[in-house]
TrEMBL record:
TM regions (residue ranges): 186-205
Subcellular location: Membrane
Domain HAMP span(s) in chain numbering: 206-257
UniProt gene name: phoQ
Name this polypeptide is given: histidine kinase
Pfam families noted in UniProt: HATPase_c
Domain Histidine kinase: 265-473
Keywords per UniProt: ATP-binding, Kinase, Membrane, Nucleotide-binding, Phosphoprotein, Transferase, Transmembrane, Transmembrane helix, Two-component regulatory system
Catalytic activity: ATP + protein L-histidine = ADP + protein N-phospho-L-histidine
Gene3D superfamilies given in the database record: 1.10.287.130, Histidine kinase-like ATPase, C-terminal domain
Stored InterPro entries: HAMP_dom (IPR003660), HATPase_C_sf (IPR036890), HATPase_dom (IPR003594), His_kinase_dom (IPR005467), HisK_dim/P_dom (IPR003661), HisK_dim/P_sf (IPR036097), PhoQ/CarS-like_HATPase (IPR058619), Sig_transdc_His_kin-like_C (IPR004358)
């Protein structure tokens, strides 16, 4: 726990994904190596014990094959020993033959005091130990002993057969010493293998987490503005993450663009009422007329502010809206524009079908008519024509609408139409304006699934802007 620069208490910081995976994999590897080492150790001890028992059994079998008895039943010692240690006193490997009336022992039994050996029945095996012994130097030790009983067939004597037992003994320390040597080698090699595997594991983990580091680097570039979006070259597991980040970035960019456009549209919409007020202030109008004009334009500006803010927040229009009569809105807009362009004597004519209605937001209608008419007044020589007619009709659906504005200005060359309709582009840089009026018209027309056509006016010779709205629901 600690405190950050802003004074907030900082909690425990979670480990990184690489540290978590490396720790978990290392613990798993160590547990596996420990279990494998223990299993190998136990297997070696069991196998070594079994091998020792088999070795002692093989020595006993070798003695049973080599020793003989004379006609009197006396044992004839073997001339050769199965292991040279049987010939060295106190070597740690001992052999004894127990007879009913005596016995025989190897040279290695000289010196140490071995445990008493009993006669076993024929065919009986016995493995025991560790048994205590006293070595020739007076120290104590332990041995493992294997014994097996045999029957000798004496055809020359009255007794047809007699028993004897062969014992093989070996120091008990031989097996532990082998186990110690094996364990030292085993854990040494497992330790080296563990270090190598941990190193390989760290390299593999670093390689497998490289896409995450790449995503982190790309995200930092997006945050710093050095890239617009995340790339698409990522593993399948990371594609949902990068796509979500791209969607979030795009959404934020669109929201920011929408906010900027809303402010620009609001500023553009307020430009006409402000121009009307300035024109009226510079004119010789009476106080009563000036007061009326100020009240009208302030009301319109208030409506425009409410409309633009609501449009920016909602991002659309009502699906079911009451039909709006168009002529009153057109007359109010034209009166203001005629005052602004009074010095040029521009006149606007109406050809409005009384049956035509706009099914939408009043603010959308004001913006649509206001921007089209203002553009026409700006470029007209003396005449502007507003035409409003019902559009195409469909059974059980609201009728469409056609709104066209013609002017007798210079017109727009066909190759420049798409350029002029772009936001922020003006048809002539020498003409005052912001170049966003027509883009506002396009946004409104697009929201009503309509079309905006720009052609040459056949009646006035200038430009013709025609908006066609399709039938509604």
């Amino acid at each position: 726990m600690g405190q950050g620069r802003d004074g907030r208490t900082l909690g425990w910081r979670p480990r990184s994904l690489q540290a978590r995976q490396l720790l978990a994999a290392s613990l798993g590897l160590l547990a596996f190596l420990a279990a494998a080492g223990y299993a190998l150790d136990r297997a070696f001890v069991d196998v070594a014990s079994q091998l020792q028992r088999d070795r002692l059994r093989s020595y006993a079998t070798s003695y049973a094959r080599d020793i003989e008895f004379d006609r009197g039943g006396n044992l004839i010692p073997p001339y050769t020993q199965p292991d040279e240690r049987f010939e060295r006193p106190g070597s740690g490997l001992y052999a004894e033959v127990v007879l009913p009336d005596g016995g025989w022992s190897s040279e290695s039994t000289r010196g140490p005091e071995l445990p008493e050996s009993d006669l076993l029945e024929g065919g009986t095996e016995k493995f025991e130990g560790p048994l205590a012994i006293t070595r020739s130097d007076g120290t104590y030790g332990e041995v493992l002993r294997y014994g097996k009983g045999f029957i000798w067939d004496m055809e020359q004597r009255a007794e047809a057969e007699f028993p004897y037992t062969i014992y093989i003994m070996e120091d008990a320390g031989t097996l532990p010493q082998q186990v110690r040597v094996f364990r030292a080698a085993l854990w040494g090699y497992l330790g080296i293998a563990g270090l190598v595997l941990l190193l390989l594991q760290a390299l593999v983990l670093r390689w497998s987490l490289f896409p995450l580091r790449r995503v982190e680097a790309e995200l930092k570039r997006v945050q710093l503005g050095q890239a617009n979006r995340m790339s698409e070259l990522h593993p399948r597991e990371l594609e949902p993450l990068t796509e979500s980040i791209n969607a979030l970035v795009e959404s934020e960019r669109q929201n920011l663009e929408q906010q900027r456009n809303t402010l620009a549209d609001l500023a553009h919409s307020l430009k006409t009422p402000l121009a009307v007020l300035r024109t009226r202030l510079d004119s010789d109008a009476s106080e009563a007329e000036l007061r009326e004009d100020v009240a009208t334009q302030v009301r319109r500006m208030n409506e425009l502010v409410s409309y633009q803010l609501g449009r920016g927040a909602a991002g659309g229009h009502q699906l079911f809206a009451a039909p709006i009569e168009i002529e009153p809105y057109a007359e109010e807009i034209v009166r203001g524009l005629e005052k602004i362009y009074a010095g040029r004597g521009t006149v606007c004519e109406f050809e409005i079908d009384p049956a035509a209605r706009f099914h939408g937001e009043p603010g959308d209608l004001q913006e649509l008519l206001g921007n089209l008419l203002e553009n026409a007044f700006k470029w007209a020589e003396s005449r502007v024509l507003l035409t409003v007619k019902p559009g195409e009709n469909a059974p059980r659906r609201r009728p469409g609408l056609l709104v066209a504005v013609d002017d007798d200005g210079p017109g727009i060359p066909p190759e420049r139409i798409s350029h002029v309709l772009q936001r922020g582009v003006r048809g002539d840089e020498r003409v005052q304006g912001h170049g966003i009026g027509l883009s506002i018209v396009q946004d409104i027309v697009r929201s009503y699934r309509g079309q905006l056509e720009v052609t040459e006016s056949s009646e006035l010779g200038g430009a013709r802007f025609a908006v066609r709205l399709p039938p509604g629901l």
